[in-house]
Amino acid sequence: MIIVMDKSATQQQIDNVIEKIKDKGLDASVSRGIEKTVIGAIGDERILDPELLESLPGVQQALHIVKPYKIVAREWHSDDTIINIKGNLIGGENIQVISGPCSVETPSQMAASASAVKAAGVRMMRGGAFKPRTSPYSFQGIGFEGLDMFKEAAGKENLPIVTELLDVRHLDTFLEKGVDVIQIGTRNMQNFELLKEVGKIHTPVILKRGLSATISEWLMAAEYIASGGNHNIIFCERGIRTFETAYRNVMDVTAVPVLKRETHLPVIIDPSHAGGKAWMVPSLARAAIAAGADGLLVEMHPTPCEAWCDADQAINPEELKKLMLELSQIASILNRKI
Ligand code: PEP
Ligand code: MN
């Protein structure tokens, strides 16, 4: 960390900062310029709090020089991490598409969804049994019963299941019922207690980006999971909130190269919650893969106009099939497998 002192800082103030650094077990190196004095803290600077140092008299600014995240950073792990989900690889040269309805509704809807997912050549299935809705009066998901329904339908097609965990009290049941991938939704990206709990297990986690989260906040959220011991983390960009109202959210495609530079973990895109309309999904999905995403999370419903949740943005089975063919062409140009 670098601590820049005020021009008028006294020797006593400089000594005070040095003492604070040494109290934390780090060394300090002082560099006196004509204009300013700069103090460098040498050692594991992550334990130093810049806000605390900036509150000391005579301090102008305290800046971390290493990244605040470690396990998730490419700086510490240069190769791409490949996550294995029941034999389906994601990361490196491997692209995975995950598709299925927004929410689990009925056994027949889940059976039709699973067979459509399989027929399109998709190898993992999504579906929410617990739904984070803006209004308390909207459909909240069918709950645990939905997980059984989901597991049964997906199991018949040999598809691992991806579902959202909303409440830390549900985690044990999710594991008992055999959830293969836990989705942490946008609204919970900074629910630190939830992140710590999924950090204690080894089930892969899809961490969606918060509605207004910066890349750095998102990486720090992943670090919460990783620091508990679970390194099976997949980032999912799902659109961010901006001034634009013509679509549900803005798919931040820039996040793909930026994140892939910052982290070794896989990065996927959810074009459905980004665009919010089914007709936008294919072009957003193609752009995501072209930009280097390691996969997609796409909402598909056997009969979109009957969906209990997010009906407008669900593509139908035929559209999914067509999209998969287009994506495989893009992937092959990029020397990747889908
Ligand atoms: C979902 O995937 O159905 C969902 C609720 O997503 P998000 O958290 O991105 O809104
Ligand atoms: Mn949805």
Word description of this protein:
- There is one protein chain.
- The chain is α/β, with parallel strands linked by helices and 338 residues long.
- It has helices spanning 11-23, 50-54, 107-119, 144-156, 171-176, 192-199, 215-227, 255-262, 271-275, 281-290, 317-333; strands spanning 2-5, 27-32, 37-42, 59-63, 83-85, 88-90, 96-100, 124-126, 161-164, 181-184, 205-208, 233-237, 267-269, 295-299.
- The strands form three sheets. It has an eight-stranded parallel barrel, surrounded by five helices. It has a four-stranded antiparallel sheet with strand order 2-3-1-4. Strands 5-6 form a two-stranded antiparallel sheet.
- The longest helix is centred in the C-terminal third of the chain and has 17 residues, at 317-333.
- The radius of gyration is 23 Å and the shape is elongated.
- The structure holds phosphoenolpyruvate (PEP) and manganese (II) ion.
- Phosphoenolpyruvate binds at residues 102, 128, 132, 185-186, 208, 238, 270, 273.
